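Readers of this paper often ask what the protein records in our data store actually look like. Such a record has a labelled line for the sequence and another for the backbone structure tokens. Nothing more is needed to write down the fold, since each code stands for a local backbone conformation. The remainder of this section carries one protein's record, kept here as part of the documentation.
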Amino acid sequence: MRYIALLCIITVMKLHKDLVAASAAPLVLSILSGGESYGYRIIQRVRDLSRGEIQWTDGMLYPVLHRLETQGFVRSRWVTTEATRKRKYYTLTAAGKRAHGKQKEQWQVVHATLTKSWSGLCPT
């Protein structure tokens, strides 16, 4: 029985693409609320926070960053690193901080509602 429990812990769940898409902007806003970051680091952070359950590609992330920038929630700047490599850094604007707060409240309502609705399904 212990072996089966261990297998359940390390099994990676495939999340539905709609759920991944719906959570992308709130995740990016949340990560950037902790400070400036760049694309690859954001992808790594999502993977780390989800313990590998959510694995974004750059083709998934950059349209989200572009949309958030167009909406005025994120600002970007190019930085040349020591190895003369250019990297685009993203940071939240004041509007982005407000949007992050609203997104957080909305997702907490969804989380609380789902938790209540599932409370009878899983033994404690």
About this structure: The domain at 14-117 is CATH 1.10.10.10 (Arc Repressor Mutant, subunit A). Helices lie at 2-10, 17-33, 39-49, 58-70, 94-118. Confidence is low (pLDDT under 50) at residues 1-11.
